[in-house]
Write a structure and sequence with these properties.
The complex is a heterotrimer of chains A (91), B (186) and C (452).
Chain A (H helix, E strand, L loop, with lengths): L2 E4 L3 E4 L4 E5 L13 H9 L7 E7 L7 E7 L4 E7 L8
Antiparallel strand pairs in A: 1-2, 3-4, 4-5, 5-6
Chain B lengths: L10 E4 L2 E5 L5 E6 L2 H11 L10 E3 L3 E7 L2 E6 L5 H16 L4 E5 L4 E7 L3 H6 L16 E6 L2 E9 L2 E7 H15 L3
Antiparallel strand pairs in B: 1-2, 2-8, 3-6, 3-7, 4-5, 5-6, 8-11, 9-10, 10-11
Chain C lengths: L13 E10 L2 E7 L3 H7 L4 E4 L6 E3 L11 E4 L7 E5 L9 E5 L13 H4 L8 H5 L7 H11 L13 E14 L3 H12 L4 E4 L18 E2 L2 E2 H13 L4 E4 L2 E7 L3 E7 L13 E15 L3 E3 L12 E3 H9 L8 E6 L3 H11 L3 E7 L7 H8 L4 E2 L2 E7 L6 E7 L6 E9 L2 E5 L2 E3 L2 H5 L4 E4 L4 E4 L1
Parallel strand pairs in C: 1-7, 8-9, 8-15, 9-12, 17-24, 18-19, 18-24, 19-20
Antiparallel strand pairs in C: 1-2, 3-4, 5-6, 5-7, 10-11, 13-14, 14-15, 16-25, 21-22, 22-23, 26-27
Classes of the chains: A mainly beta (91), B alpha+beta (186), C alpha/beta (452).
Chain lengths: 91, 186, 452
Amino acid sequence: MFLINCPYCGERDQSEFSAGGEAHIVRPKQPTELSDDQWAEFLFMRKNIKGVQFERWNHAHGCRKWFNMVRDTSNDKIHAVYKMGEKPPIK
Amino acid sequence: MLKFSTPISDSKEYSEIKISEVEPIIKINLRGKNRDFITKIGKELSIILPVDPNTSSSNEKLNLLWLSPDEWFLYSNDKIDLKDTNSLEDKLFNEISKVKLGSVTNVSDHWIMINLKGTKVYELLSAGCPFNFNNFKNSNGAVTQTLLNHIDVIIHNKNVNDLNLFVRRSFSAHLWLWMNDSARFI
Amino acid sequence: MTENLRTTNSKFIDQTSRISFKFDGKKLYGFKGDTLASALLANNIHLVGRSFKYHRPRGIMACGSEEPNAIVQIGSDASMTEPNTRATEIELYEGLEASSQNCWPSVNFDIGAVNNFFSPLIPAAFYYKTFMWPANFWKLYEYFIRKSAGLGKSPTEPDKDIYDHKYLHCDVLVVGGGISGIIAAKTAAKNNFNTVLIDDKNILGGTTLFQENECFKINNSYSSEWLKKEIETLKSLKNLTIKTRTSLAAYHSYNYLLARENLTDHLDINEKKDKIRQRLWKVRAKKVIISTGAMERPLIFNNNDRPGIMLSSSIKKYIDYYGVKCGQRISLFTNNDFAYEAAISLNNSGVIVNSVVDIRDKTNSLIVKQAEKSGIKIHWKSSVVNTSGYKKINSIEIMKLSDDGTAVVGKKIKEECDCLGISGGWTPRVHLFTQSGGKLKFRDEDNVFFTR
């Protein structure tokens, strides 16, 4: 069970949060111009890497704000949290 | 016109803990982002809108709780009748919603307030709440939104060992039963 | 028989309040402060169970959570019975009912023990290979296999007890209330950290609590006396919460730990009513100090699994803490100095110590000299090669080790005994550390896996 530092509310138990999958996936500007394959690629295909990953989280049972997190999926270490729209603090 | 109805309407006393439902009171959800909204609220309610996370500000009649960077929760101290409810809501609606400064939603019937009093209130909460109350305990006016027995709640530290807890109406009967069940063993 | 296995000098057992309990239907007596294991040993009962496959007799071997053998069933009620509990962890209470597992019709006469004689015919995977054919015979086999599988009996009706759980947030969590845990908790609490100290036993102190040997003095007083004063000062500390009878079960990420507190298991049956039996603590700590100590290792030799063969540190705890003699004529087998502590304690309590069999050439440590001075015979550079006695050990065979230590030489010496203490050194309890992701490294100087 993680202890997540919500960028708005501070440290809270993981049970207050819900995970929202990979972050920084840009929605295509003209979805109508895409082929089905390209659209499926955008909708469903995720990297699911072992290692440092950028994720979206929602403080669902707290301030209900979305934010981003840099987490190492191999040891669950949270390297950073940052607000939506901000640049990742680490690469 | 709002219709208040409460599923609890009860008060129970256990050793060093008293839980009671306090209704009907007015509760209003406020949302807004810009500076004008913040100053307008302060002027209309004569309370400064708390901008620091997990804090609140109060006057004799009203309490204003921080919920998120653009969301606040307003509730009255005293039980009031429906006419007053409407006048406060109308006033805010005209000054804020109408001029598109933010949104005003009357949530008086959406949330149920339960007051918890006594030296063992935090022992009761820690039975179902993953939140760390160690600092919260000692700071009057602190606010948190968290889970209590897997139910969303807003907790307002009104005074030492005197809390107001808000729970959604549909969950309130269940939470009330859980609180009574847990309080037996505190 | 009970009388002469009890010493009268235990400070931890209240010999004025007698407690009656039942083991395998027989009414027995113990005292307040006893565990089920110590009360059984005081009644000269070593044989408490049977091994899983060959149904070899199994006796009490240790004195705490490391006990591998004395696994018993508690209670007989269909809703409250509890299988697979360690006799060494159960505090005695009035009306306790316990029974041995994996034996039929009784632990003393167990039909399954025939497996032991047929053991050459029952190789690994015997069951899987044999009972496959003919396929429609499975209905027949299943009944017998199901009957012999598993250890205890699970309850068949819903649990009537009340259980609870609670969250706990602290700055420092100290796991283990031995000497190091006590000092760690004291230091943390004095430095204004909100500290919680937990221990699975009913009182704090670990093994130091009954350490009254000249060789282990702290500030010129017995280490037990010194520690008692430290425990007293702990109780006056404001920031410190002490939880006894609480064992840590899991160490998750971000210092999220689960601990189980036993609230009523040690109470008399009529006192348990309407109370919470156990509480699960969900702890979130900023720092965790693991001070779980170490457990003694056994030694390897032929027939080292007989009832009456115990860890030497456990024999010492039974005599010094519970005031229970594990036998009247005890031999010890060791590769280190710790067995000598047990030897001296036993000698002081009037138990005959046959000899200490030590695989080492010689050692100059003070504790060994102290043992020699009190007239304890030592077989240097020797090994126990075999033991005999079916339901309880009755003799051991000792042989000299060759110069390079790889073989045994010379004549077998037979020594009669009713209990054998073994000590193969110590293994640090690193379980929680590794569970939380910690890595271990083998440390050559004392042959243990230790934190890297």
